[in-house]
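tool_call predict_complex ligand=S-adenosylmethionine
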Amino acid sequence: MALYDPKSPCADEFINHQEIVDTLAYAEAHKDDLDLCRRILAKAHPNVAPKEEHCTCITHREAAVLLMCDDPGINAEIKQLARQIKLAYYGNRIVLFAPLYLSNYCVNGCLYCPYHAKNRTIPRRKLTQDEIRAEVIALQDMGHKRLAIEAGEDPKNSPIEYILESMKTIYSIKHKNGAIRRVNVNIAATTVDEYRMLKEAEIGTYILFQETYHKENYLELHPTGPKHDYCWHTEAHDRAMEAGIDDVGLGVLFGLDNYAYELVGLLMHAEHLEARFGVGPHTISVPRVKPADDIDPTDFDNSLTDELFEKIIALIRVAVPYTGMIISTRESQAVREKALQYGISQISGGSRTSVGGYVDEERPHDTEQFDVSDQRTLDEVINWLMENGHIPSFCTACYRAGRTGDRFMDFCKSGEILNYCHPNALMTLAEYLTDYATPATAERGWRMIADEVTKIPDARRREICAANIEAIRSGDARDFRF
Ligand code: SAM
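tool_result ok
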């Protein structure tokens, strides 16, 4: 029987089933111990939490106790603390991105995904480089600067060479004042050599969702194809890090298995990356299963209420305070509005999840990966963020300045964010307002910028930022960053 070892390279040891079972039993036994819950919360307070070595503030066991606790007072404290932590480490900025679906050919049999190989009703499509160019121009014309490229797994139709060529195409397009400055990649688990190629092609974050940490269920949900190999999939982030990609993204597809099991597995995965590589995950995503072609989410008996979903988001924020947290347009405006208060730091906007969806006037549905709940335009999302007090940011500076992996984490812990990320957010927002915003969004945005510039602590930076914003607004100068 595999024993729990967070430093082990072996999936069965760092995501150890028995450790999860024991953790859930411990949480069940201690969930009514309100003093313990309060002590755990106190450990994670931004004024107390370790600023140096650790990316995690509370352990997976402690997070499980808080998750199981159903005391309304503790639940309110968890949310309040999550809000405080988000503001302390990330400020009121929210980074924006869009997914770009390159291909929906897939050799896997994932039971929850419409791309599964046996689905004969979904039209299969793979973008040519010319089509990618057209998509990227449409995305640039919306104002996007950061993409997450997505593809099904198919060595023949979308081999690594296709992904690399597509990244090159995306980075090369400079249309009007537009540019895609960071390309994150969400493709199937692969080899160290292929991760090295992605690194050379200037990947931003390598994102791979675990789907479920419950091995037995994982094997059933992925009955055929290379993704069936649980250890190969679960150890993928390790291989990516071995290849030099130090920004990796985790995620669970909530709804497939018991949420408590998943939260514990997810936090154990973060602890493992930190134990083995000295740096935790750059991002954590929180997708939930959605209806799609040939997919009915009620087939998976583990859907969770919005309230529990919010609590899980808040707990991830409390447990892993420096990690970026992503919520996509799978969720409605109402759910996203709440999630933003409990720790989310990145959202997608104006998304189309079909292959080739951005060039069409009307939202196409035929090749969609999942139904998009939040169907607003990017401009509507930007306006709404500002209305709710968040600064929309198109910043990609850290990655381009080499602040990735542990350097990003150190930077995040150093408290320098207000002197770097805050002005960078404002300058990229100024680009958006000048080049793409509707008059109503622009008006609200310039008011916000005028107010937020005054909050940059360093006087010299404040001056430079204000001058750069003026240069953006009155001319074609772009891409300033600290
Ligand atoms: N092919 C890559 C892989 O094997 O990991 C990932 C690309 S897939 C386009 C991106 C993610 O979409 C998957 O990892 C899965 O979590 C999510 N997804 C699949 N079906 C979904 C559904 N019905 N609802 C919501 N998300 C879904």
